[in-house]
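Sat 14:20. Reprocessing the chain from the morning session after the first attempt stalled halfway. Input below, unchanged.
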Amino acid sequence: MTVTAERAAVAVNGAGTPVVPEGGLLPSPPRARRRWGLFAAMAALVCLGALGNVWLHQATTNAKQVVAARTMIERGSVIVRDQLVTVQVGSDPALRSVPASALADLVGRRAAVDVAAGSLLTTDSTTDKQIPGSGHSLVGVGVMPAMMPGTKLMAGDRVRIVATPSQVGVPAATPGAPTSVAAVVVSTFTGADTTGQGAQTIITVDVPSGDAAQLAAMAVSGKVAVVLDSRDR
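Finished this time. Tokens:
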């Protein structure tokens, strides 16, 4: 069984004008769909681009070069050029940062506070106070590992250098009480272990000049212990 589907045909006369068949209509051309979603996305992209340009312009205009710490700078240590780097940050009136043009002025000054690597230096980060000051002296004390605190000493730490009972010739302040001298740590240096008992640490401390001779006498034998007092300021 064969089924024949008849389709309406549009005839064309000699002049090229379509002839509408009897009882039939010309087919309507398909309507183009308006893609409103695409238009909205394009408009949003244009707006975002404009806002980005405005933000970039403002950020570039307000940015300034300031000084930051390349490495950790310990309180009380003398600042060297390799510890400093310049970075670009946004301008903030509340931040008393040091401009990059003043970087050279920081070299040779002492750190007034601990400055972590990557932190910005401010006008309060350094001091030109000389160490030792008037009426004070620096004394070097060699201490074995077992006589040191378990935590690392930092410049500015307040410590007490205590004579151990095995010391001879160092009188105690009171009978039965160990002799001790209060001091402030300026720097530390750990040498090489040449005895197999651990490397000795050389601690340079700032003490009143009146205590310097006594502390030097205690340090001669190396039989001293270091007590770290509170770090609260």
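Confidence is low (pLDDT under 50) at residues 1-13.
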